Amino acid sequence: MLRSSFATLSLVLLASLGSVLAADYHGVKVIAHRGAGYEFDENTVEGCRYSYEHGILGYEVDVRLTKDGHLVLMHDADVSRTTNGAGKVEQMTLAEIQKLKTQNHQVPVPTVEDLFRYFHDKPDVYLMLEMKTTDKAAYPDEAVEPYCQKLYEAASHMLPPGTFCFISFDHRALAAIHRIAPEAFTGYLSSKAPTEEMIAEAKQLGCGRMSVPIQTTTRQMARKIKDAGLQLSLWPIREKEDADLAVLWGASIICSDTPSSLLAKPSPTP
């Protein structure tokens, strides 16, 4: 019911705006969520390659640490939803992870180095690296900073400056990145409706962006986020109407499962 009401409200608002929205998209980054997980296998190099070949220049991926200390791309703690295997990433070795294939296209689970190797000569691309460290059993306090150090070093050594950022729901990880590299761009993620206290917390952590739920964020709070000097990202973006509303409210990042649907299409020849 909430989703239906929100979609209806979006359409009513957008109907009054006419063609103004098209111009508003200039300067907005369109990001493939999980490497466009609805268009190819999520969090794979092949999926990112597919999206890149279809004109996508921004990618969000999820990073976890194997039992033997390797960074790999995987959203869930357990590999069973997306691969032909079972088990928790943090309890598996890289060799075990590398035996897996994704369920749909039977491609491998990549390391971050695999991903960075593909993108290192593509300076027009922007990567959002989500640090999946919220599980304190898998990532106790003393493990978070070494994880962040490893990820920062890999990204900064293999990618052009300014083409990547670090995002997380885990404030420990955001604080660790800020200690390791104060100049690194970080993004504060939340699944809750934003508050002024959360804005202050994001600023205190040194973040440059807040990503908050589109369904529970008000236009007034979106404005407060931007007035605080933070970039705004609203999620999830599953429909064109979501993206249009996010841009209307000042979002600079559109992170979508189907990013190709948001790219401008050429007008038909008369």
TrEMBL record:
Under SUPFAM superfamilies, the record lists: PLC-like phosphodiesterases
A single Gene Ontology MF term assigned here is: phosphoric diester hydrolase activity
Q: Which InterPro entries match?
A: GP_PDE_dom, PLC-like_Pdiesterase_TIM-brl
Q: Which residues form the GP-PDE domain?
A: 28-266
Give yes or no: UniProt keyword Signal: yes
| Pfam families tied to this protein | GDPD (PF03009)
Q: Which GO terms describe its biological process?
A: lipid metabolic process
Signal peptide annotation: 1-22
Q: Does the keyword Signal apply?
A: yes
Q: Entry's Gene3D superfamilies?
A: Phosphatidylinositol (PI) phosphodiesterase (3.20.20.190)
Task: Identify the keywords attached in UniProt to this record, alphabetized.
Answer: Signal
Domain of life per record: Bacteria
Q: Which PANTHER family match?
A: GLYCEROPHOSPHODIESTER PHOSPHODIESTERASE (PTHR46211:SF14), GLYCEROPHOSPHORYL DIESTER PHOSPHODIESTERASE (PTHR46211)
Which protein is depicted? Glycerophosphoryl diester phosphodiesterase
